[in-house]
Amino acid sequence: MRNQEKEVTADAGMYVAREKIHPREVKGPFQTLRNIAVIVLLGIYYGLAWVQWEGRQAVLFDLPARQFHIFGLTFWPQDFLYLALLLIIAALSLFFFTALAGRLWCGYACPQTVWTEAFIWMERLTEGNRQQRLKLDKSPCNSTKLLRRGSKHVLWVLFALYTGFTFVGYFTPIRELSVNVATFSLGGWETFWLLFYGFATWGNAGFLREQVCIYMCPYARFQSAMFDPNSLIISYDEKRGEPRGGRGRNVDHKAKGLGDCIDCNLCVQACPTGIDIRDGLQYECIACAACIDACNGVMDKMDYPRGLIRYTTENAMEGKPSRILRPRILIYGLLLLALTVGVLYSLTLRTPLAMEVMADRNVLYRDVDFETIENVYTVRILNKDSQAHEYVLTVDGLPGARVITRPERIHVRAGSTDTVIARVQVPRGAATGPGHPIELQLTSQSDPAIQSTNAARFHGPDE
What we know:
Layout: H1 2-13, H2 29-48, E1 52-53, E2 56-57, E3 59-62, E4 67-70, E5 73-75, H3 80-101, H4 104-109, H5 111-127, H6 130-138, H7 143-169, H8 174-182, H9 188-208, H10 210-216, H11 219-222, E6 233-236, H12 238-241, H13 266-270, H14 290-301, E7 309-312, H15 314-317, H16 327-349, E8 353-359, E9 366-367, E10 372-383, E11 389-396, E12 402-405, E13 410-412, E14 417-427, E15 436-444, E16 451-458
Antiparallel strand pairs: 1-2, 3-4, 4-5, 6-7, 8-10, 9-10, 10-14, 11-13, 11-15, 12-14, 15-16
């Protein structure tokens, strides 16, 4: 009978309506670090779109032109390798920091966390502290409630719309976009993405909040696979804190058989996902460390040592030796360092020129005269530089080979492509039979260091 009652209670609990979480405002080093992270990351997001670089927007993803500008670098679809390497670096970073100290990304740098924190600031500004917000939730609908809730949503909507505007501004030059907004001349796709991204920000940061972290984010589910007993995690010291119970500041709690936890529940009130860290590590914990700041504040008031809730390892909590720098961390760190250095080094050697050579498939070779044969190639040139160049095409690999293009100096504008027909001629007898390897080299006349080489095959007659 009791088991049936428990099952009914558990089933009923699955359908309990969600109770809105109002995180308590706390002060401490971890909260200060989170505030700095929010300000810096939002500052980068909103400010970077307005930065100019060499006469254009510093960061611009120009999809119609298939150009991706990041300060002095311009990437093309042909540079997809860099995107793949960037994603690998991001994945390795996630593995490294999770194995080292849990969900640091979630607590300090995740966009959901950053924008939710900003929305909570606006909520506190209009509706007051946690107690005032809880009281406002329970109060009947009146002019005060409408004014406070209305002003909050006005701030939220304006902030969300500006977020969507900034997002579109990374794909359409933001100065041009601002003029279009002011003159009500936005294009259809620009309007759609501005409203869509603004609505997503308003919904995720204003209403869903912790539900995104708990139910929608897959990282919450597989993070445990990245932990081990030596990972730094936020933990409650049960041996020191239990049995918990209320008491006065001057009471000798040890004489009463009590632990250091006074059961004030401030750690629960401060948690943005509403969990009780005293129940142990839970997948809902985003490692924001708000509970540490809240608990340390209480410990200071009670003249107890800090650290009842702290960053520590499972082995340390059990009194076992703990190693932060272990083979797993070192391997992740070395791989991450090697990849990052490799990508940066590759960028420094990156040539702002690409060339593709395609042989004429209709005729393998042609007789120019009794002494010369030629192969015809289509050469596609991509100038990745921010200025125009004139190039000259040369050939190597066969004695007496020369290449003819019209014009001889190939002019390609900055950030543009051009296609030319190249005729490679060699003396008859220098190339008999198919498949002689040759190299076509394209060199800038203004900067000989800018060059690209492409291998090809030269076909001659069977003699």
